[in-house]
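[Meeting: bench + compute handoff]

Bench side (C.D.) handed over the final construct sequence. Compute side (W.E.) agreed to return the predicted structure before the next meeting so the bench team could plan truncations. Sequence as handed over:
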Amino acid sequence: MSAARQVMLDTETTGLEWRQGERVIEIACVEMISRKLTGRHFHCYLNPERAIAAGAQAVHGLTNEFLADKPKFYAIADELLEFVCDAELIIHNAPFDVGFLDNELALIGKEPLKTGCDSITDTLKMARELRPGKKNNLNALCSEFGVDNSNRQLHGALLDAELLAEVYLAMTRGQESLMMDLEMGAAEIAALTSSERPTIRILSATSEDLADHERVLVEIDKESKGKTLWRTLAA
């Protein structure tokens, strides 16, 4: 899977439940190809056309005043869909973000997010399988895998997407060597292998060595009363 295009995606919202009319206020996507960040990203703030819940504002720090002059979702929808097109989306707690984005897309008459992307991977589900019974939020995973999240005072979609990329790489590091083997051609593997191996010295047996070897075989043959396997095969 490492050769495929992957996009880390995160959102911030006005509240916890899109079914109650809460809206998306920030979207960030970070591109990765062959398990390397490319530097390409998509990021925008949005005017949700409704007030932000106090609890949500405490988490991400975004205010109604800051978002008042930002674009509405319909204005950025095509650019977002183009960025994620044909990519594997990597999302922490995917049902939350996908639910919100699918709602936004439905409000403007567009198909669900999965229609245009290759697949959706939920890293929260992955983490729960790797670390059953433990905290698996992004902060906990950063601590577990040694990812520096010291700049994460508040939730922010772009920073969280970048942190998620590092966490995802750490959680799937064992797959890297396997995928390299699958993707490399025979000639590339042979070249890599030969460059890593030391030169093998070939030493030929002298006539004295051969005579000593034959003497040992004769003694073994005598001890076994002529039942040695090599004499039987030779006959």
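W.E. noted at the follow-up: Residues 207-223 form the longest helix (17 residues). C.D. will use this when planning the next construct.
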